[in-house]
Amino acid sequence: QVQLVESGGGLVQAGGSLRLSCAASGRTFSSYAMGWFRQAPGKEREFVAAITWNGGRTNYQDSVKGRFTVSRDNTRNTAYLQMNSLKPEDTAVYYCAADSRLPAMARSRSYEYEYWGQGTQVTVSL
To answer: 3-state SS of 14-67?
Structure first.
């Protein structure tokens, strides 16, 4: 099992930028693909971005392509989500997750990930 802790959320104006971090402990970080998901109050959790175990392949929700960048630093056991050109509709709790079963993939469904962080709030104002 692995523990994941997100950080870096906050309140920003539309058009601004924010970088989220996901620190992992308890297992070998490089053996997992990492995903980012978000959930607004009363809405379904949705896929944002994912990255394979070695960073060789990434996957993005269409609505964030060109604005968000997922990356990882396996020497620091940390995954990142760089968010640029933020919009009010990006407001949500953002979660990182680890996929131990198919780490060579960057999968996009919540049920494909076994381990989850506690979430970090991102609020984008008008």
So the answer is: CCCCEEEEEEEECCCHHHCEEEEEEECCCCCCEEEEEECCCCCCEEECHHHCCC
Phi-psi region of 15 (alpha: psi -120 to 50; beta: other; left: phi over 0): left
Amino acid at 54: N
How far is residue 59's CA from residue 40's CA, in Å, rounded to a whole number? 21
Helix, strand, coil in percent for the chain, rounding step 5: 10, 50, 40
- pLDDT value, residue 26: 67
Map tokens 């996929």 to a residue: 99
C-alpha distances out from residue 64 to 32, 44, 51, Å:
23, 17, 15
Q: Give the span between the Cα atoms of 64 and 75, in whole angstroms.
A: 27
Q: Which pLDDT does position 27 carry in this prediction?
A: 63
Spans in the chain with pLDDT lower than 70: 26-27
Asked if 98 and 36 touch (Cβ cutoff 8 Å), the reply is no
